[in-house]
Amino acid sequence: MSSFFKTPIEFLKGVGPQKAALLNKELNIFTYADLLQHYPYRYEDRTKFYSIRELHEQMPNVQIKGQIRGRELIGEGRKQRLVIHFYDETGSVDLIWFQGIKWISPKLKTGVTYVVFGQPNKFGNKFSIAHPEIEVLTPALQNNHFLQPVYSTTETLRRKFLDSKALYNLQKVLLKEAYNRIPETLPQSILQQYAFMPKKDAVAQIHIPREEQMLQKARFRMKFEEFFFMQLRLLMQKKIRLEKFKGQLLAKTDLLTRFYQSHLPFDLTGAQKKVIREIFNDFKSGKQMNRLLQGDVGSGKTIVAFIASLIAIDSGAQVALMAPTQILANQHYEGLKEFADKIGVKIALLTGSSKTKARRKIHEELLSGELHILVGTHALLEDVVQFKNLGLAIVDEQHRYGVAQRARLWKKNETFIPHVLIMTATPIPRTLSMSVYGDLDISTIDELPKGRKEIKTLHQYDANRLRLNGFIRKEIEKGRQVYVVYPLIEESEKLDLKDLMDGYESVQRAFPEYPISIVHGKMKADAKDFEMARFVKGETKIMVATTVIEVGVNVPNASVMVIENAERFGLAQLHQLRGRVGRGAEQSYCILVTTHKLSKEAKVRVNTMVRTTDGFEIAQVDMQLRGAGDMMGTQQSGQVDLILGDLREDEPVLTIARQAAQKIVKEDPELVSEENRLIKIQIENQAKKSVNWSRIS
Asked: Where is the Helicase C-terminal domain (predicted)?
């Protein structure tokens, strides 16, 4: 059965070697299975013929029938257009062609009844349809009212007569042969529970829908199946991990109690306490922890990670904290060293710029167990870095690392796989966390520390520069500091550097009385650190920078973040940048500066930032704008391998599918029952193509 679906596409009637080569290259269609899974992305309603009198401007594509009563060629050369006067018994409409006039004109004859399909536009009192589909009315067309599937294609394919309609015709040819060969993949119990149609009918209805209701039923069934198998795989991986990988018991709390009672300078929020309890329960369960800790910028994830580290250290284990950049690693180290020194915990920093002598000392103290916490960048992954007993691995902003990179950290303990705590300040929409991190336990810090004032976000146009400069001057006079950030788009670094230097000069001209720092990615690390240090100490009042400061710098005295060309930033970036202010007790501001010309998407991004500071809401809007794959970046997007399902729109389907998968894993985790035989076959087929993500978080 499966060998039929592996048949090369060139053997399908109407394809042949030349068209097959084009389908391979343009659409990645190599086999019958590939073509069958090239689903329509929308449908045109051919279920009704409209009269010309019924047309109005808000209509999408419509179908009308009538006859040609005249034609005109208007204009000359490139501006020439063909206008056909088309009538039915209720009125007239103009059909217009700007291209392909010589090809279409001889085919259009008076006295013949045609079916026309296209989008009506009104100009004055007259309706017109540009470049409509037009064909002679036949008895088959008269009676064949249906939803016409529209397939994605390319300009190259269209030129070779492989447009959407041609792809539809190929699907009809293939379905005749394939229909009775399409295997069922869901068990009878699930089909009955959700009243699903058989899989072969669902596939057929998606390509050749009889009516809207049947199409929706077919799509629901197929989306459910995609989500169901994704969730089942993740839940089974989690179950195997919990059974197979024993966790080091970390249950001592003397050090934590001492720190909590004598050295914690503020009260923890309810959300922080809840997360610490969840981590502690994992530590003493005997199972290896694999937990994702998500919380907005400034919600206090780092102190939670430090408290978890104290439990590990008290129980005789060591801790590694890996950050994506040197700036962020430095900041974690500086912030935690202050606490560690007070309670006799030894902490060190290892980055690419650590000197040989310091490295040697770190390696020795790690092996002897004298060093308790090692903070660093990916330098921690080097083979030479060996621990006596690594018990907890903390990874900050883990989407910046490749899977293979992280896996090297887990291998640094031969007796136990270390407990894993992944931290992210980019809140993850629920559908995405269920699909990408469905095998991890998720903890959320969903409240900000007491006394934090919400950052006020304002949108300003370039034209209001003088007013903006006046506002910045007032804030500096109050003793505050200011960030001015310019975008960095890697493809045009020269242009960006020029923008940054121009910006730096205009800031100098506007504020000649204040010392100014500048930081960008082309600077050497020590020059960057020097400029950062000046700003942190308050020696400079304004920091002009590219997005290198997106993660990391913590300057409580900085109360204003000005983001230039804000329309060129993504939502997640804007939210991260805004989180650089609001660290102190004073009212902070984020000012988004844009040109007047904003795309529809840019308007949504700016308005969202002005409206809310809730990272989860922002992440949801971000996913609606960009899609799940883009949000995750190339490292993770391969895990969300969906054809019909859409994480932006299909949360209800995903939730039902996850519940169904949870029930199966609970009742028949090995899939040994005859009832679940089809599921087992499908899971085994999918396993041949996929990576086990749960082993490597």
From this structure: 467-629
Secondary structure (DSSP) of 344-379: T--EEEE-TT--HHHHHHHHHHHHHT---EEEESGG
Amino acid at 599: S
Count of C-beta atoms within a 10 Å radius of residue 39: 16
Pairing of strands 113-118, 133-136: antiparallel
What whole-number distance in Å separates Cα of residue 506 and Cα of residue 138? 70
Q: What is the mean pLDDT of the chain?
A: 86
Residue 520 contacts residue 500 (beta carbons within 8 Å): yes
As a three-state string, the secondary structure of 99-122 is CCHHHHHHHCCCCCEEEEEECEEE
Comparing 113-127, 227-241, 625-639, the range with the smallest average pLDDT is 625-639
Pairing of strands 516-519, 558-563: unpaired
pLDDT of residue 398: 59
Residue 39: which of 211, 214, 203, 220 has the closest Cα?
Answer: 203
What percentage of the chain reaches a pLDDT higher than 70?
A: 92
Q: Degrees (nearest 5) of the Cα angle 48, 54, 58? A: 90
pLDDT computed for residue 528 by the predictor: 81
- List of domains in the chain: 48-144 (2.40.50.140), 254-285+300-424 (3.40.50.300), 456-612 (3.40.50.300)
For residues 59 and 159, the answer to whether their CB atoms sit within 8 Å is: no
- Dist. CA 113–CA 136, nearest whole Å: 6
Give the single-character DSSP code of 395. Answer: E
Q: Are 387 and 320 in contact (CB under 8 A)?
A: yes
Residue 280: pLDDT over 50 = yes
pLDDT for residue 337: 93
What gap in Å lies between CA 228 and CA 306, rounded to an integer? 37
User: Per-residue pLDDT tens for 248-273?
Assistant: 999 998 999 998 888 888 889 999 99
399 sits in which H/E element? none
Query: If you count DSSP H runs as helices and E runs as strands, how many of each does the chain have, helices first?
Result: 27, 22
DSSP state of 51: P
